[in-house]
Amino acid sequence: MKIVEKVREYVISTCRNLNRMSDYEFHISIVEDLGLKLAENFKADKEIVQISALLHDIGRIKYGPENHEETGAEEAEKILRELNYDEQKIRKVKECIKEHRHEKPTIPISLEAKILKVADAYSHFKKPIEIVCMRISFGSEIKESIEWMKKKLERDLMFLEEMSKEMKINEIVEECKKAYEAFSFLTK
To answer: What is the C-alpha to C-alpha distance for residues 41 and 117, in angstroms, rounded to an integer?
Structure first.
């Protein structure tokens, strides 16, 4: 079994055991798919992007939202070492995970980290209603969840617009603008 398949199997099993399959179905699998397409398009290391996409939220899923980039990177390292993954590649995956999400739209350095961050931001525009429902299922109020998602989409759109100055992702930006306009209708 290839390393990507082993990591995917681990993530799915973890999500299932923690009753978090919606995280996998509505977010992680989408980030992996988008990341793989972007990696192919920009000639990046597909394996690093896929593994990073699969593990990018493992810290949040296992330990909660606080400092999940750091705990997620450490958890990813532990998982990948158990699978005897190359140490240099582990460092690249950890970098991607640490750089994938910030309150401010920062630009990562490596191509693979940029791709993961773009795929993560882009994924939120693919299933915003499902993400809101997932948040509600964990105890948040409907109105609060919709406002939270709107702010997340605003932040992600700002980041994607900034990234479009470095990467040819104008079609993604336009698609996300339309999705944001449609979602924003809910808050009127």
So the answer is: 15
Task: Write out pLDDT tens, residues 29-66.
Answer: 999 999 999 999 999 999 999 999 999 999 989 887 66
Q: Phi and psi for 149 in degrees, rounded to 5?
A: -65, -40
Residue range(s) defining the domain that contains residue 84: 3-187
Q: What's the CATH number where 150 sits? A: 1.10.3210
For the chain, the domain total comes to 1
Mean pLDDT over 77-106 rounds to 88
Cα separations (Å) of 93 from 48, 81, 174, 176?
Answer: 6, 12, 29, 26
Burial class of residue 123 in the structure, from the number of CB atoms within 10 Å of its CB (0-12 exposed, 13-18 middle, 19+ buried): buried
Q: Which two tokens stand for residue 38?
A: 């972007």
Using a cut of 0.85, tell me whether the model's pTM lies above it: yes
